[in-house]
Amino acid sequence: MSNERYPKRRHPLRRLAFVCVPSPATCAATVTVLLGIAVSLSAAAAETVGGRNAMQWLALMDQALTELNYDGVFSYVHGNEVSSLRVVHGTLDGELRERLIHLDGAPREIIRHGDQVACILAPGDKLLELEDSIPSGPFARAFTRYSGELPKSYRLRLGRMGRFASREAVELVIDPIDGDRFGYRLWADTQTGLLLRSEMMDADGERLETFQFVTVEIGEPIAREDLDPAPGPGLVLHHLTLDEEIASPRRGGALWTVAWLPEGFSMAAWDIRRIPSSLKSVNTLMYNDGLAAFSVFIEDMPATGGGEQVSRRGGTVAVAQPLEVPEDHTRLVTVVGEIPIGTAKRIAASVKRTVPR
Fold first, then answer.
1. Where are the domains of the chain?
2. pLDDT digits (tens, 9 = 90+) for 194-227
3. What CATH class is the domain 256-353?
4. Class of the domain covering 26-239
5. From edge to edge, which strands make up the β-sheet containing 154-164?
6. What pTM, to 2 d.p., does this model score?
């Protein structure tokens, strides 16, 4: 594996930059942030399963995902594509370790070692062309946690029982309060609380993304060699996090703003970054409602390919459209995130400059 090092960067907010490369396990619906939601979600059902109500199961799921040792293979369906991945998660020498391995296509791994996250990729992998992005899902999303009070944008209740990877599971249903975000169906292992299956649903009940363990071992010791990356000729190490003393995304004072936001969303951070492949500056605004998230990218209009574009891959949408700026040149605005297309279009149309040129 090459020792070439790319500039270290902090992963901003889960998926948010995936236009070309689909995330490997998106449909797990950010279970790692659901403990906060369990404190603030409204209208949770009062019934219990195994002595726990829906909020208690949600908290247990969050805890299990982070604290348990587990090693499993899961399938991920997004749009018309199906991927298989292996995840190995555990604590070694007192430090949290995690390894996410693509079992299909080009070699690709995501390695977590404490607070450090890196991708191991083949040369030419398109992931290297995307700024500050890592695949999200139940495991990659564990790299970022949110704190503070979350808006009451979802309703939580217990659903039906199920069985996945030869284990009994209880369903948790997360319904949005409006049409500007998606809903989720999560199944937790009744013995440990670990997430076994997840579905992202649109307003019509269509499954946008599905994650499901095929096999999984829970609570067994994890060998060091199962957490270390597999060596390979020509593979490149790409760091995705920063040390604490290095500057992180900025807050407040952004050069651009979004005039319209769905209820419950707020800006988490902003930054001005450079695309590694072109060195162009891109203004990036990052928003979340505690579960769903999206980013807005503002850049100079490219010479080609800068017209209106709309695409969707699974639950991730990308909307690009020109922005006419008075007394300035035209910019290209791109909104990428886990929101409906209509919502993304309305957000893109509301982008405005806050600081005169």
1. 26-239, 256-353
2. 999 999 999 999 999 999 999 999 999 999 999 9
3. alpha beta
4. mainly beta
5. 154-164, 167-176, 183-189, 195-201, 207-218, 70-78, 81-92, 95-102, 108-113, 116-121, 236-239
6. 0.77
